[in-house]
Amino acid sequence: MRIPAHSVCTAIRDDIVSGVHERGSRLTEEQLARRYGVSRVPVREALRTLESEGFVVTRRHAGACVAEPTEREAADLLEIRMLLEPLGAARAAQRRTDAHLRVLRGLVRLGQERARRGQGEDLRSLGSWFHETLAQSCDSPGLTALLTQLRHKIAWMYSVEQPVAPVESWAEHGAIVDAVARGDAERARALTAAHAERAAAAHRLRRTVRVRTWQHAVNTTGGRN
């Protein structure tokens, strides 16, 4: 049975995000095919997709390698998300389905319950699910794909501290859903913008893996000894 390239792409991307494939490391088709139990054809297709997403780069004499994003690139991603998430929420207020609304409300109820109980690990997964559903609710495949890609890349580059007041954070989620339910695009946009700005402050660059600074080291004073 031929494994779809998108399944292989998801597996490789997940391993990049989790650090299994370290930044700057080579990604050979043969090794990846052996790791995921597939032929080299879907691996080749997956690597092309991951390169277009910015997770992989092709280097002369080395081939495909895990990308090494700069600090400026990482900062740009948070800024882009703070621009796009409010747009997605505004679109969701105009285009969401009843099914989307039911899921969003259910997630808010669960999130508020877990927040009151202090169940932090559950809150992380519920928060991801909430924002994924909100992105899908905007009924714009291009925007949904961009927001999904941003979430993957931000999870790769940043660790996220638990909110100091998770109950308040989930109250914000609830207010966003209320605005979406009423079809109030401008309020949904404003609430999501404020929420995204507060959430960005909890992101910390991961230091356990290499992240190049954006400045080039040119003519350093001491040189190499």
Give the radius of gyration.
20 Å
Taken in chain order, the helices and strands follow as HHHEEHHHHEHHE
> Structural class, from helix and strand content?
mainly alpha
- Count the beta strands: 4
Helix content: 55-70%
Residue share in β-strands: 5-15%
Widest sheet: strand ordering: 1-2
User: Can you count the helices?
Assistant: 9
| Average of per-residue pLDDT values | 88
Largest sheet: 2 strands, antiparallel
**Poorly predicted runs of 5 or more residues:** 208-225
Distance between the termini: 56 Å
Shape: elongated
Describe the structure.
The chain has 225 residues and is mainly α. Helices cover 66% and strands 6% of the residues. The chain has 9 helices and 4 strands, in the order H-H-H-E-E-H-H-H-H-E-H-H-E. The chain has helices spanning 5-18, 29-36, 40-53, 71-95, 98-117, 120-137, 141-157, 166-182, 185-200; strands at residues 56-59, 63-66, 158-160, 203-205. A two-stranded antiparallel ribbon has the order 1-2. The chain has a two-stranded antiparallel sheet with strand order 3-4. Strand 1 (56-59) and strand 2 (63-66) form a beta hairpin. The longest helix is centred in the middle third of the chain and has 25 residues, at 71-95. It starts with a helix and ends in a 20-residue tail after the last strand.
